[in-house]
Amino acid sequence: MEVVTVRILADLQGLVSDFDIQHIPYVDGAGYEIGKRCLPGTRAALLDEICEWVNSDSPDTPRVCVLMGPAGTGKSTIAHTISSLFSTTNQLGSMFCFSTSEFTTRKPESLFRNIAHDLCKGRPAFKAALSKSIGGDRSLCGTKDLETQFQNFILRPAHDLSLSGTMLLIVDALDESGSVKERAKVLNVLITRLRELPATFRILITCRPEHDIQRSLLKAHEWVKVKSMPSPDEDPALSKDILQYIRQRLSNEIDAGPGSLDDLCCNTLCSRAEGLFQFAFVACDYIIGDDVIGQTSYMRYQILLSGTETSASLDELYKTVLGQILGKNLAVLGAFKIIMGLVLNAREPLAMVSIRTMMTILQAQDNVDPDRILPYFGSLLSGVSEATTPVRPLHSSFVELLRDTARGGTYFIGHDGHHERLATASLRLLQSELHFNMGDMNTSYLSNKVLRDSPNFRNKVSEALVYSCKYWGHHLELSPVALSTTKEIADLVRHLLMENILFWIETASIADAVSALAPCLMAALSHLQSIGEDLWNMARDGLRFIRTFSRIIIDSAPHIYLSALVCSPSQSQMARVYGSRYPQRAAVASHGVSQWSSVDTVITGHTASVMSSVFSRDSRRVISGSDDGSVRIWNADTGEPIGEPLNGHGRWGVTSVAISPDGHTLVSGSLDKTVILWDPAAPITLNGHTEVVNSVAFAPDGQRFASGSQDKTIRLWKLSKGAVSSEIFTGHSDGVTSIVFSPDGQRIVSGSLDRTIRQWNVETGQPIAEPLRGHSDWVTSVVFFPDGSRIASGSTDNTIRLWDAHTGENVGIPLTGHINWVTSVSISPDGRWLASASHDTIWLWDIQTYAHVGEPLIGHSRSVTSVAFSPYGGRIVSSAMDNTIRIWDVSIHASTPAPLTGHIFAVTSVMFSSDDRQIISGSFDGTIRRWDATTGDHVREPLVEDSNQVASLALSPDGRWIVAGTMNNTIRIWNAASNLPREEALGLHTGPVISIAFSSDSRWFVSGSVDKTIRLWYPDTAACFGEVLIGHSDAVSSVAVSPDNQQIISGSLDGTIRRWSVARQHAIGDPLMGPGGPVFCVSFSPDNSRIVSCHVDKSITIWNANTGEIIGKPLVGHTEPAVSLAFTPDGSRIVSGSADKTIRVWDVATGTGLGDPLLGHTDIVRSVKVSHDGLRIVSGSDDKTIRIWNANSRGHAVPETATAEKNETTSSSALPEQTGSDTPDLVDAGQLCFSPKPQHQLTQPYTTESGSIGQISFDLETGWIMGNGTDYILWVGPDQISRLYTGECQVVIPGPTIHLDLSKFVHGTRWAECRLPSS
What we know:
By secondary structure, this protein is an alpha+beta fold.
């Protein structure tokens, strides 16, 4: 029985392992093929050398061997032969063959997946180790990250594998794993990580001698063996091997009777091959190819040799094959050029089925059948015998021949006419096939990602249609302008833009081709104006639509209609032309926008402050560096990440990034004092600076780059033959903050903490003239004008200055207007505009008038760290400490609406007026503001505290006095009725006054300070009375007065709570010390019986106010410390605001949280208060906003008796009206409700499959409103979702609060009803 049990357990373990491993995708057909081996007896010397390397047990044996040689030299044949030899000895672990013709499946992410699968075959120990490494993590099985794959699929399991001999892994045709950029990651892993495998592993890699591969190998020469494929001079046996190959391939044609070949023919072909197997392959393939009536194999052989003695190259071979296939028939040659013109000029390879579609739709003008031409070119093109495999030349030399007029001759194929055909075919196809609901989607709840797992969904859109969607604009751009003015093209474009643009966008959404939409429209713009101004305007509007709603388009095709149209500005072309065609959808009931915002794209993904961002030269990408230690690349149109984060600086923040002019190389500087050159092959870490690197910049030639550091130096780095050298420039007396090259690359300009700007001669490293002086504080940013004549600089003195680059003199007047440090400046490519960043705003300046243009660009919620124009000038990219990147459309900046009026810094304190009709707020911006608690509108002018930061605020219960504590140690008192302050600020505290509280009779108030003291004051005389309360050993963070005015409680960062007698003005008993550590806030319950406190350990503690004992267990739920607390008027609930950006409501009796956290704020919630009637909560946050919440939503309600009691004294005007009132209604926030008006409520309920009401949640980062966590209900955007009425959140200040009418909103299985049938 025990044996049986053991076997069962073993079988179960095996099943578990198989279950895990089967979820790792595997690409069939990418391994060893027996038919691709060398002929027996050939390549013996090379094969022996490789076998000896594989079997060597010497510790000095290199782990990796790279077999390198030109195309056609037989590398792959060698690899397959080695695979065959070692598979017989069970030493072959895996073979993976990259291939350009199979690139759609044999991608870099398939390499380690296939190797892992292969290593499991017959190796149960590896299988078990792999299963253990995966640990049942399905997401890990599907990861595309190569580092993660290698670590978990190969390296960890390999170390658990016990081998008696060597284990061989083969990677064939590494150069065909993608472009230089695409293969950089896999190359880096292979070159840097393979040596971590056990010593018994051997890895054979074959590749062409590409520059990036060779450069990477130089860094790994100590443990990588590089073997070049021998030339005929180096290996006399090579010619013999080629001869044997030719004899074998032509064996059926030799001495086979009249018209056959003989051995001399084989020798002649071998001589013509000149050591290139590719020639032998093409020649033999042609000779034994399809029979042609009247031709023998010898005749075809003679045709091959018909060229002169010096032209027996691949060019002549290709020409010969072309001539034989095409003959002298000009019509056939013309058809070949049309089809090959389409193949060569297509933006990406097309399969035969797509070529057929394109040519069929062009039949009326060309009448060319690709099936009568392309299948004959199997020796030159791949994919011609398969329907869905992309048609590609087998070798790039064939393309080079056809593209070169001199080399191609008769067969030359240029661009003329071919882009016109592709544009016409694409537009015709779009007109005939686009329609509503291209994916036949039966619900709006599922994401595109989920739907793409269904083959039926993927097959809804043909490859040819997808190609047309992506590239019609590019081909139109590359066609003569005259094409656009033809009636057919004009009509096709008009129909696409004015009738089908949403269907076009939907098709790209379904096909995962959204990133191609904006470039396609941008390319077409140059021709659209010649067709019609209305089309040009529509295209530009469509471009804004795509960029603004890229999140929707990527995530869910139905929401192009259900969400994007809803959020489109009412006066936009998209809304005006298409809005009425889709009436059954949500609508903005109040406070919608009429024009597009300046914000084009919001990019999220970094987990810490983004310190630097720049555009690539083509403006298609954005590169960013962050305090999270990563460098990232983003699509500038969609905001989607491109590739994985570049993590080379570890946990150290990235301070600056730059991209080379050719767009292939990045450079980053970091807090870790290093510079990293992100070469496509492998990153190179450069050491030299002794302090933080603040700035990096590329020279215009791309061969040099510079870095500026806190160590006061500038280093000029030079690239030469794969090596990097540096020179040091010294002269600044403090840290270098910013550097940039002049447009001609001859100078570097630098800004410094020493308040100066210097110019440097790049060749000599010496300063040019004297430093530029004028700023009165640190210089944070410098930039050259495009013509190199002037320099602009920004400073912590809040100004921008312009300088003559030749004389060093100030130009014009300083640009003033920023109220905080200028952190970054940038000049537009035409030199007309200057962009500057400061705190959370960006200003655009007219250089000619020295005046700022329009309103500030506002959107970032924290300090803007960098700003940069796109190379084309129409857009600006900015990064900020709010972890985001924003791209702004400068062209519509002038039409941007005025920014919302509110606090411009963190809101530190909020409260209701005594009648609950107003909200009073204080802020670090030095103002105190009053707001209408129902509408969120301003009430009266703000109270200004002379630019002092308001740290705390209190309103006397009788409404007479407003008292503020400031960060400059003072207290200010205002008469609430007159708005007039007391003459003098109260200045007895020696530290910031961070807490104020009034007595319930309004006769006095108490203040707590960072100076560790507590003071009592009379508001009417502004006099301090009684003793200074001293006892805390650290800052007093919070004070409160008992409802009976007999006690004061104080919380401190020293971790204690103290009770003080007001009458005797000394401490009562011992300090209260809980386990939570430093105290952030304290409050009394309305009945004097309880004290509540919040602590640094994220807990909230309730105390008995009389005994000082802790009541129950701490309230736990916040993920960061709570910093503000308030009791409801009846004392049954506690409201807490936290650094985790949420508000929670707690039941005092049970100590449990009620309902879900209130979400909406995007930063620390510093202050919370409950209205006197207990129906509303107000909160203030570091995100500069104030929110008013329904206290009775989702389980937060006060007890029924308490509500009834309060309502007895509440006027009827405060209650919800039944018709058309904007007064906040008490709506169940679990339902979809985005307006207080009954007529705006949902008529199609959102329910679960069981029929119950679905749970609604808000993704503040993406802007999605989700149902049950997975259903896509509606998108309103990250900037708008925070201002949305939700039933829970009734008012957002500054507003206006957005209301949505859901009465016509169809969703889920009814979503397609949104469209008028006639449309």
